[in-house]
Amino acid sequence: MRRETDIGPDGRLPDDLVNGYREHGFVRVRGVLGPEQVERFGAAADAYLEGHRGDSLEKGGAFSQLVNVWQADQDLRDLTFDRRLGRIAEQLAGFPVRLWHDQMLVKEPHSNTATEFHQDRPYWPHAGDRLPLSAWIALVDVPPERGCMTFLPGTQDRSGLRAQDLHDEDDLFAVDPELRWIPRVTVPLRAGDCTFHSGYTGHMALPNSTDLARLAHVVIYMDAETAFSGGSHPVTDSLGLAKGTRLDGDAFPRPWA
Predict the structure, then answer these.
(1) Is the sign of the CA dihedral 153, 3, 71, 254 positive or negative?
(2) How far apart are CA 166 and CA 185, in angstroms?
(3) What global pTM score does this model have?
(4) Residue 53, pLDDT score
(5) Could you give all domains of the chain from N- to C-terminal order, each with its CATH number?
């Protein structure tokens, strides 16, 4: 039996979800993957994690972060390059986007560590860009106790803040104290569901207190006109880019275009 999906026969989202994303800075999209895709991509993620845990960029223990898996695994490449996801990202953004990078974000069973409130965009060496956005795809059921995300609605307009400490529960609120009083929205996901959120929307992920690893595959989209700011980042550090260079070409493709 096919799971309910929010994606129409034309591959687009209904207007209410698009408007909700633009108002709140995030949206839940049900059924972006069917059961067979969940099984295929979940198995691929499990196998990839088994061989690459030591490659995680996150060293603080909150989660494992494996970046640009599309370059190393064909199944996960197919997920990252999924045309429906890319076209929905462009529908939500309202302008052409390209891949910034993908990543697996894994919380091991009983890790019991939260990923504290933060914005994504301050970490990235981008310039001249409009709002980036991420598709956070659940490859297993992710109820609150398995580490689903909580969002601060309407914070997608809070640009210009420094990068925040993912391990300090007060750091985002030290940067902008008003954010502490915004009502928070926690979004559990079934396997195959996803959220899209803006790179400036404040969010956190709860601890995983269950017996099952939380597997999420994240595809991060940036404005197709984004240029390199000259800052340091694992994705760009080895590319030898000059400041002001447009982030395009084979490293930052648009396979859904």
Answers:
(1) negative
(2) 18
(3) 0.96
(4) 86
(5) 27-225 (2.60.120.620)
